[in-house]
Amino acid sequence: MCELFLLSSRLPAEATFSLCHFAAHGTPNGRNVDGWGVAFHDGRDIRLYKEPEPAGDSPWVAFIEQRALATRLLISHIRRATRGANSHANSQPFARELGGRMHLFAHNGRFDSIDGRFAASSRRFLPVGETDSEMAFCLLLERLAPLWKGTAAPSLPARLAVVEDFAAEMRQLGIANFLYSDGEFVFGHGHRRTQADGIVAPPGLWLRHRHCAPAYPDVAGGPARPGVAIATGDADQEITLLASVPVTKGDWRPLGEGEIVVVAAGELVPVTR
Prior knowledge:
Layout: E1 3-15, H1 17-23, E2 36-42, E3 45-51, H2 59-67, E4 71-78, E5 94-98, E6 101-111, H3 114-119, H4 132-144, H5 156-171, E7 174-181, E8 186-189, E9 193-194, E10 200-201, E11 206-212, E12 228-230, E13 237-243, E14 253-254, E15 260-264, E16 267-268
Antiparallel strand pairs: 1-4, 1-12, 1-13, 2-3, 2-4, 5-6, 6-7, 7-8, 8-15, 9-10, 11-13, 11-14, 15-16
Helix pairs in contact: 4-5
């Protein structure tokens, strides 16, 4: 199955070992060989790198590390194709503009019979490729669009309510692990995935949060191969990672089946309805 990865931090951070270790899941000898992508939020815009080739051998991964792009929010995806050709258009994350900012979506799983639901939608947002994942993203944006008509961003409870209804519907269609970001909040939904024993079962996503003191040199790995290198700063740092499977050492918590977490600035966000 596909692999998902999220980094959210309060201060700019660099994905080093985590991204390398994650990309290694897509080596030609592995299962996830049909494409990869990584998107860095940059204000209201994004920097998006993706290609329809194995991540483990990609010179782009080395390029991204050499650039050492510091970011507060990135989403990455490694693809195992179940629908649609190996193409740039079908590689994730997917990106669309809504409310004057870029939104991102990455999905692990498969949505059967989504075509009929998509055909019945208003179709303001159209897929560029052929995947069920991109159709799902377009459906989600259709339902979020009414919230983003004004000049002010909608409330978090209003956004979450739409995401929760969407997730519940998608769980009826298949495996529905996804990461959705509007640049301010990330919504991570855990469902099921094919486990190491071949059984399709929860968890579909794992979470790790860590608080670091100022100038802490390492978050998730060891001193020689840090998991997330912290950009220079003189304040405490908060880091939250979400991944299909743990990509670093340390304490990871599995998300429950159908659980949605909201992440912003490296912390889990409590939501009061």
